[in-house]
């Protein structure tokens, strides 16, 4: 039987699987943006894998609960939307910084 993992809030470091090692976090324990972005990319890969698995199980008649496919699809779509928004905000911030005059 297929199980779908829970969705963790972004502000919890354990949601990203990050530890408090000095090279992966800042001094105050907040994850570095690159680590957060890499984890969001991994999350997109994982949710897409779950969706593909649910589609395969449904196509082969092995999926007991078809609602799991809908849940997996929605979760994959939301994780992609989050990644796109994070990318857009990063680009917007970069453009703002580069347009500042010194």
Describe this structure in words.
The chain is mainly α. The chain has a domain at 30-99. 59% of the residues lie in helices and 0% in strands. The protein has 2 helices and no strands. It has helices spanning 33-59, 67-99. Helix 1 (33-59) runs antiparallel to helix 2 (67-99). The protein is elongated and about 65 Å long.
| Strand percentage | under 5%
What is the number of E strands? 0
Cα Rg: 17 Å
Structural class: mainly alpha
Roughly what percent helix?
A: 55-70%
Average pLDDT, rounded to a whole number, is 81
The shape is elongated
| Helix-strand string | HH
Count of helical stretches: 2
Poorly predicted ranges (pLDDT <50, ≥5 residues)? Answer: 18-23
What is the assembly state of the chains in this entry? single chain
Distance from first to last alpha carbon = 59 Å
